[in-house]
Design a protein that fits this description.
This protein has 2 helices and 10 strands; from the N terminus they run βαβββββββββα. By secondary structure, the protein is α+β, with helices and mostly antiparallel strands. About 20% of the residues are buried. The N terminus is likely disordered. Keywords: Membrane, Transmembrane, Transmembrane helix.
Amino acid sequence: MAASVKTAFSDHDYHSDATKNLDVVTATEGMYVGLERGETRNFVKFAREKKQPNLARVKLSFFNNSKRLVEWVIKCAHNDNIQAYPKASGLIKAFDTNECTLIWQLPKPYNSWRELSALKMMLQIKLLVSETGKIVGEASSKFRAAVDPNAVCTAEEPPIHKVILNSELPDMILRKEKSTIFTTKTDDVSREIQTKIKDENFLNDSQRIYWILILLLCLLFTFLLKILSENDEF
């Protein structure tokens, strides 16, 4: 059985909105262009750490909205400045959750986050059979990551970005299953109708035989009466 996986990125929540002792980064050309234009679809926003502005964090919270076991992996293209804790992969049971904190360090050649371009990242998903570990579906979702110029956080309370993992059967398989169910129901109805017709025919045949026997008995009785009357005459 094949399956497809869809991911839905939602706006993340902040545990802390403290902005004291930290200058707000002004949005300029770079990673903030997409945020300025409102291009937040599949956009993960980091928040700068209050005590260490050269570090930015975000917590990815995964929810497995599936009856299957889900294996997930986060990948980042050509960037050694991103770390994942406790790790960049994991398994999620059916209708369960898992999480991962991403820490982005400002590269040494740069003095400000606004000088960086948005990161290109990928979330890879596999649907597994819990009992055997067999892969029954897989998919990937690309997204971009940037540091929110207006957000700060603490190391203990990074912003939370929720990711919902939905799995569903392809339309072709659904149509096939529906067609099979419809055919089965149609066959059952046909057999039931044929059985009723046979029963009705059987009843009609029995009734005809009954009346034929009655008629024969009447004829036989009439014939016997006639013979008896002739004998009386003699």
